Amino acid sequence: MSRIEIERRDAAAPPVVIPQAIAIIRFNNPPKGYMNAAMVAELEAAVDTLLADETVRVLVFTGALKGVFVEHYDVSELVALSERLRAKGTAFSLDRPSPESTYHKILAKLEAAPKPVIAAINGTAMGGGFEFCMACDIRLAERGPYWLGQPEINIGILAGAGGTQRLVRLVGEARALELSLMGRTVSPDEAATLGMVHAAVDGPVLEAALAMAERLAGQPPKAVAHIKRLVRSAAETPLSQGLANERTLFLDLAVSDDGHRLMSEFVAGRRTIRD
């Protein structure tokens, strides 16, 4: 059984001329919907394939199981890892950073990808499941009796796939500390209020995500890539360097085929600048 299901949908004709599609990737690991090593291997292959496909313009991730996006990482695998390391007497120090796992690398690839990535959160996403969501560019959560967040402290560990770092960037240090130290998960509506997700939506969240993906697929791909690169790097880039990067990529778009054509259509009255 495949734990990662991929569906390809053609997007409507946009102001760009190359064929394009929206990729829907579904997590399907019954009965619990856990992330585990087997799913990570399939996920890596899927992400690499879709990012390399120039006709795929937007990636939308969602859960195949009712009420579950990704429940969390399979704790039994973490216990087995703990036992192997304890048997070796392995010790850890910040002076010797641990290497990235495949899962860490996948999340970094999605953040750095020139394509928009949407999490259509159709149910519970805790621990490694919500860490995946935080690596996506857009997070939409379906309203319902679902729980989102980083409760790892409740089983004696911490969020190990970006949860302590990305959550701070979304909600600020004070709120991230409260949520992480208390191991508190939140509803979709509270997640939206806190800024953990962009919106809580009624009805099937995939429909809302696909409507957004359709719009994104129609945007000039070079502009999408440049904007994502600048915004994603802004927090770690000195302002002077960030502004220099912005000026440079602005002009790069101004002389691009899409940029010149679309600006010319606006000047000629054939296009509006508003959405």
CATH topology of the largest domain: 2-enoyl-CoA Hydratase, Chain A, domain 1
CATH domain class name of the largest domain? Alpha Beta
**Main sheet, how many strands, which sense, barrel?**
6 strands, mixed
Q: Could you name the ranges where pLDDT drops below 50 across 5 or more consecutive residues?
A: 13-17
Number of domains: 2
What is the rounded Rg?
A: 20 Å
Number of strands: 9
Distance between the termini: 42 Å
Number of helices: 11
Helix content: 40-55%
Which strand-content bin applies to the residues? 15-25%
Approximate shape: globular
Structural class: alpha/beta
Name of the CATH architecture of the largest domain? Alpha-Beta Complex
Name the CATH superfamily classification of the largest domain.
2-enoyl-CoA Hydratase, Chain A, domain 1
Order of helices and strands: EEHEEHHEEHEEHHHEHHHH
Mean pLDDT: 94
- Major sheet: arrangement of strands: 1-2-3-5-7-9
Give the tags.
six-stranded mixed sheet; alpha/beta; 16% strand; globular; 2 domains; 275 residues; 2-enoyl-CoA Hydratase, Chain A, domain 1
